[in-house]
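Per reviewer request, we include the raw input and output of the structure prediction for the construct analysed in the revised manuscript.
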Amino acid sequence: YGLLGDGVNLAARLKSLNTRYGTQLLVSSETLQSSIGELFVARTIGKLVLKGRTMPTHTLEVIGRKGHIPQDLEQAAEFHENGFTLFSEGRFEEAKVLFEQANSVFCEYDEGAVPQDKPSALLCDMCNMYVKNPPPMDKWDGSEHLNKKAW
């Protein structure tokens, strides 16, 4: 029961986080590391330390099936993913540029229906915050501690 309970709990938390990020489908990296992961385009939302946990959950948004979504969305996901790599390395100014590019492409695809892509915008804001107030780099791993169970 414990293992099943934890999986169900994680799924419920990720479902709730869709509200915070304006996304439709969030999954853990463990889900995408299975053989089906290669079939989908996804981008990292964050290394999230969920309330009640001590270890980060690498959380991704599934954007769509490879080859079945527009090429510009695949490119935007790549900008975002590369930005997150830089973010995790503490290279916040460089990461922000890529998050801004991803934001631009995602918003262009939505034809302006959404003023900003929430995941990219949130990470841009975090980059701005960390440029002004850098975290201690000897302890930095790019994770974000969330203090709420539901959003």
